[in-house]
Task: structure prediction
Amino acid sequence: MKKILILNGPNLNLLGKREPGIYGNQSFENYFKGLKNIFSDVELHYFQSNHEGELLDKIHETGFSFDGLVINAGALTHTSVALADALSAVPMPAVEVHISNIHKREAFRHHSFLSNRCHGMICGLGLQGYELAVRYLLDLDAKPVTIT
Result:
């Protein structure tokens, strides 16, 4: 059975309450229950933290034993070289996800330190981006992927 981690960063614990016009009004916990039903043959794990070090620790803990990572690092996407380095340090393939379209928002959100360490990025598709990222990671074995 494949093991995939969904890792959410700062402020994503407020989904469903925080700026519903941007992030929607569903909590991630409720969304995650539905995701687990869709992927009942996958061991899905979820971790959220507002602390960069805890996110780093979780990547180190799972990066050598899990089959994939879906990461939404929140604001740390635009600031954390440490998270980028952690993604480079482990063999676990990753997909970066953003609920909103970061390229339609403030200029500082247009740059990601994580993108070049991930197989790809999904942004602007709401919570559905997580499902698409999981599907991609599950299909990785079937597709040759070259990252340069």
Remarks:
- The chain is about 30% helix and 20% strand.
- The radius of gyration is 14 Å.
- The longest strand covers residues 3-8.
- The chain has one domain: 3-142.
